[in-house]
Design goal:
It is a single chain. The strands form two sheets. This protein has a ten-stranded antiparallel beta sheet, sandwiched between helices. It has a three-stranded mixed beta sheet with strand order 1-2-13. Helix 1 crosses helix 4. The radius of gyration is 20 Å and the shape is globular. The protein has six helices and 13 strands. The chain has about 325 residues and is of the alpha+beta class. The chain has one domain: HIT-like (HIT family, subunit A, 2-Layer Sandwich). Bound molecules: zinc ion (ZN) (3 copies). The site of one zinc ion has 4 residues, from strand 12.
């Protein structure tokens, strides 16, 4: 196999799959994470008063199992300052969802039922943010591990709303319209149907498709796509949400057990208002560094073929 220049399913985004370097999934196995330094964790039970005022919680047997509160150091805020008419304020909501009380458990350790419950909590918060007319988008994302930007090791997800639609999401929504005009169909509906029949398939059930995208930007990139053309987490039925939770569990367990739990980022691309973007989740393990070429050209060199990554993730 030779190095290939590949284009994304619908974006004008290119990657070079540099298989000439001959990397295998096992080459990305990392050393076990270093021991914790024993600092007080704000997200642990008993330290609730150290976080900003709680927004909501889910309880089981009298204890919280999922907890939502504002970020202590928000990137955006709904508090207005006087006399800044000319500036576009970084207006919005920045919230934290702690998915489980146990300090050293991560999402891969949770039951499918709990992950499914977490997904509905994300959706509640997104809907709440979008009910504010000044909010144009809400991004749900997770940074796992220090190299992926997590400043606290206790697992959590963040949601940041913005007063603009982020460029990447806008480009996706616009590319969908172009694709529809040309082909009369949705690019993500087409992509999952093609991928579940080929070498990049990871897993599927009746409701959900998981595959490593043709133009993967990083080794082990994976996407979760509902088979039904839905826009938001709120459109998912209970069964579909359960399927999506199963997909999360599969991917994150494989990373934990096969590669010693590497850092990763994941995010949800929900539909911006008035558009027709098919809901999807993008998972990007941080197993490579984007440097001068990537920054200067926005062409990414990926040293592992997604076909090999799919084999790594596939359940036995
Ligand atoms: Zn903790
Ligand atoms: Zn679709
Ligand atoms: Zn996307």
């Amino acid at each position: 196999m030779e190095n290939e220049l590949r284009k994304d399913y619908f974006l004008d985004r290119r990657v070079i799959i540099a298989v000439g370097r001959g990397k295998r999934p096992s080459d990305f196995k990392r050393d076990p994470a270093p021991e914790e330094d024993g600092k007080t964790c704000f997200f642990c039970p008993g330290n609730e008063e150290m976080t900003p005022a709680e927004i909501s919680r889910v309880e089981e047997d009298g204890h919280w199992v999922i907890r939502v509160f504002p970020n202590k150091y928000p990137a955006v805020t709904t508090e207005e300052e006087e006399g800044s008419d000319e500036l576009m304020p970084a207006y919005g909501y920045h919230e934290i969802v702690v998915e489980n009380p146990a300090h050293s458990k991560s999402v891969s350790d949770l039951s499918i039922e709990r992950i499914s419950h977490v997904l509905s909590v994300y959706n509640e918060r997104v809907e709440h943010m979008l009910s504010d007319p000044r909010v144009r988008y809400a991004l749900v994302f997770k940074n796992h591990g220090r190299k992926a930007g997590a400043s606290l090791s206790h697992t959590h997800t963040q949601i940041i709303s913005t007063p603009v639609v982020p460029r990447l999401v806008k480009e996706e929504a616009e590319a969908v319209e172009r694709y529809k005009t040309l082909n009369g169909s949705c690019p993500l509906c087409d992509a999952w149907k093609k991928e579940v029949g080929g070498p990049r398939k990871v897993w599927e059930d009746y409701h959900m498709a998981v595959f490593t995208p043709y133009a993967s930007r990083s080794p082990m990139e994976a996407w979760i796509v509902p088979k039904r053309h839905v826009h938001d987490l709120g459109d998912l039925s209970d069964e579909e949400r359960h399927s999506m939770a199963s997909a999360f569990k599969l991917l994150l367990e494989k990373l934990r057990d096969g590669l010693n739990d590497p850092p990763y980022n994941l995010y949800f691309h929900v539909n911006p208002r008035g558009a027709d973007l098919h809901l999807h989740v993008e998972l990007l393990p941080r197993l490579s560094n984007w440097a001068g070429f990537e920054l200067g050209s926005e062409i990414i060199i990926n040293t592992m073929a997604p076909e090999d990554a799919a084999e790594f993730y596939r359940p036995e």
